Amino acid sequence: MSLPTAPLILDRVMAREFLETLFQPQDLIQIQSYQKPETGRVPAWGANLCFARGQLNERTFEQLERFNGGPSYDNIYVRCNVLRQRMGTRSAGDADIAIVRYLWFDLDTMPPEAAAQRFEQAGWPPAQMIVASGGTGRPGNPGAWGFFRLAQPVILPPDNEAQGAFVKAIVRAGLNAMHDGPETATLHRLVRLPGTWNVKSPDQFAPVQARLLVCQDETAVWTLDEWAKHLGVTFDPAGTLTGKARGPAGKAKDPAAAPGAPGQDDKPKPVLPPIYAGCTWMKHCKDDAATLPEPEWYAWLSVVGLCQDGRAEAHQISGLHPHYRPAETDEKFDHAVQAAGPRKCQNVHETLGHAACITCPHWQKITSPIE
Q1: For the chain, what is the mean pLDDT?
Q2: Are residues 233 and 245 in contact, defined by beta-carbon separation less than 8 angstroms?
Q3: DSSP class of residue 291?
Q4: Which of 272, 197, 235 is nearest to 3 (CA)?
Q5: Predicted confidence (pLDDT) at residue 2 exceeds the cutoff of 70
Q6: Cβ partners under 8 Å of residue 365, min gap 6
C-alpha cells in the first residue's frame, strides 16, 4: 500500500457539525496535524491552529484540507476540551485545559455499533456523539469515540489540580468498564476530526475517513457527580480518589490493580525476561525492533515501562530502529506509563493484529502480558 495519488477531500459539513456541537462560540480550541508518513516513525507536529470556535470559517477548512488531503497527508486532530489560553506554537497539556463540557471515551478496538450497545448495557445515558475514527487504520478495526455532554460543564481553576484529577478518574473508570484497550485519560486528549482522513499507516492500509455517525442533543445528560456515582469513583475536597469501576456485568474492577500500574510503586516491579519468554508478541517487538511500526512500539513501551529497568530497555531496543531519537523515546515512554497503562492482550490481538494470541496458553486467563 502507498500514499493516494489523488487529493483526499475533507467533509467540511461533518467537521463543522462536530466542532459546533462540542464547543461553544467563545471556546478556545486547538487543531493540530501530525505524522507525516514520509519522514519516519513519529515525526513532530505540523500545523497548529488555535482560535475561538466562533471564528471557524471556510479558510480554516481550506488549511485543513491542504494538510490532510495532500501532498503531506497529515492526520488532523482536535483537543476534546476547552483551552485556557492561546498556545502559540506549542502543544497543550492538562494544565492548559479550562473547561470540560463532555466526557469522552476512546474505544480503539470496538466498532461504533458495538460501542453504542456497550454504552447501553453499562446503563449510561445515550451518547450525544459517536465517531468512527478509523482506529489504527487496520481494516476491521474502525475504532469508536463516544461523547457524553455533562449537565453542567466542569470549570478547572488553574491552581487546583484535584478537579481535573476527578474528571480523569471518571473517564479512566468508564474505559475500564468498557474493557477496551489502554485506559488513556488525559484532559488534553486529542480526537481525530470527523470528516478528515486517517492516514496513520499509509504503507500498510488505505486511508479511512473518520465519520460522525451519531449527533443528537435531545437526550438525557448526567452531572459529573452522577457519572462518578455510577462508575464507583468517589472524591473529597482534599482531592482523594477512591472506589472501583464497574463493568457492564456489574463486576467490580480496580483500574490500578494491574502489576506495575501507576499507584503500585510499593509492589516489586515485574522483570522482563519471563514476559518475553511467555508472550510471543512482546518477543516479536524486541526481535523486530528495527522495523517495528509505531503503534506496536508505543504498546510495547506501555508494558516495558512498568518493569524493572524499563527505561534502559526502552532505549536499548528502540535504538535499533533507524528513526530512533532519545528525546522522543523518553516522551513516548512517559506518556505510555502515565496515561495509558499496560497494553491488554485483547487489544494486541484485535487492534495490532497479533494472530498468535489466541493460541497462547495464557489467552483469556490474563488481561495483559505484564501479568
Answers
A1: 81
A2: yes
A3: G
A4: 197
A5: no
A6: none
Q: What is the grid cell recorded at 300?
A: 510495547
CB 102 within 8 A of CB 22: yes
Distance from C-alpha of 138 to C-alpha of 157, rounded to nearest angstrom:
40
pLDDT tens readout for residues 154-172:
999 887 788 898 999 999 8
Q: Is residue 263's pLDDT more than 50?
A: no
Question: For position 200, what pLDDT does the model report?
Answer: 67
Q: How many helices (H) and strands (E) does the chain have?
A: 11, 15
| Residue given cell 477531500 in the structure block | 9
Grid coordinates standing for 135? Answer: 482506529
Residue type, 310: G
Q: Give me the amino acid identity at 243.
A: G
Do 96 and 113 form a contact (C-beta atoms < 8 A)?
Answer: no
Q: Count how many Cα atoms sit within 13 Å of the Cα of residue 219 in the half-sphere of its side chain.
A: 16
184 pLDDT higher than 90: no
Identity of the residue numbered 316: Q
More confident call, 167 vs 176 = 167
- Return the bridge partners of 147, or none: 104, 129
Alpha-helical (H) ranges within 289-325 are 294-304, 310-318
| Residue whose C-alpha is closest to residue 336's, from 287, 278, 297, 293 | 297
More confident residue, 324 or 6: 324
Residues 217, 128 contacting (CB under 8 angstroms)? yes
Please list the alpha-helical segments (H only) found in the chain.
Answer: 12-22, 58-69, 112-121, 162-178, 224-231, 272-278, 280-287, 294-304, 310-318, 326-335, 345-350
Please answer whether residues 278 and 362 qualify as being in contact, where contact means their C-beta atoms are separated by less than 8 angstroms: yes
Measured CA distances, 370 to 59, 202, 269, 308, 344 (Å)? 48, 30, 10, 11, 9
Helix (H, G, I), strand (E, B) or coil at 219: coil
Cβ atoms of 76 and 66 closer than 8 Å: no
First-to-last alpha carbon distance for the chain, in angstroms, is 36
Q: What is the pTM of this model?
A: 0.68
